[in-house]
Amino acid sequence: MCSTCGCGHDEQGAVVLKPGEFATASVRPAVGDHHHHHDNGHHHEHNTHILEVERQILDQNQLLAERNRGFFEARGITAINLVSSPGSGKTTLLETTLRELHGQVPFFVIEGDQQTAHDAQRIEALQVPVRQINTGKGCHLDSDMVRRAYSDMDLQAGGILFIENVGNLVCPALFDLGERYRVVIISTTEGDDKPIKYPDMFAHAQVCLINKIDLLPYVNFDVQKARDYARQINPEMIFFEVSATTGSGMQQWYGWLLQNQIKV
Amino acid sequence: MHELSIALGIVKIAEQEARKAGVRQVKKITLDIGHLAGVEFEALDFAWPLAVKDTVLEGAERVINKIAGQARCLECDKHYALHHLYDGCPYCGSYFKDIMKGKELLVRSLELLMSGQDQPVADAPADNELVTKN
Known about the structure:
heterodimer; A: Rossmann fold; 8 helices; 9 strands; 28% helix; B: alpha+beta; hypothetical protein PF0899 fold; three-stranded mixed sheet; three-stranded antiparallel sheet
């Protein structure tokens, strides 16, 4: 249960790990208990006053997201928020992309997981600058965690920053990180009705990668159906059918990536 | 379950507004939440007591205006009820749409409990709460 996920909003919530610190990532106690005392010892008459505040509940995340976006654009960095359910192959897809496009683009990665630095270690092995965010009980990244993660990274102009969100097809949908593009990944080992089961995630993404396409002969996944469902929510969705392990279809994804990155 | 994040966002807004007004308790909070905003109302109910404990919202009455989805078809320009993000236009079948209503996620109003002589002061210092503490 991630009922304490909001604790990640507090300063001491999510933990950002740099290379050299990945080994220290471990299960840690939930944080975020907030104890402040309100003295209610006054006994005079009360009256009430109605305040029309009309404030967006997520305005703080949104403001910081816009700040991140401005920072990335000014620096000529293309930030991509990768979202999917756990196990759809986000990290493998990322590894293949980084390996195949090595030398063509400066890459940077922020990994988001509740626990462990396993993913960051996989990225570090490819000599790509990486930070790991451990959200603890948190079920999504937010714009402040991302700001803290990139603030001491030496992001280069013309680079691509991949932000691999926590594997979760629900919660990350609501939290803008300041990315330029949101890419949602589904795999053929999941149901082809994922898009209409989790429509929010598909509504906010520009690109949908259908991964593990090499397993199609063994699974009951109708690619056309998945595309049709996703287009019901987002008629302008761009699709790539790929296999991160065999490399099938990856060239088209790379083509899109290179074409759509910010030119400096 | 991001609803605790949502609830904590609500608490933050209430705390800021109450502090600005120089009060320590909210009697009632009114929220506008659309059916298509991505918020599970039951999960919000579950998270609420955890989020409001020891805050200005503890014990406050909570009213949620649940706002039904409405879309405008970008092909035929007709308005229609949008129950799900994947619904198409019932008139022409197009899925190209503008969502007019149902994505709301905001704190509409706060009913502040004023103690006897306190009046709302628009430009009260931010640390007013500390000043008035015993």
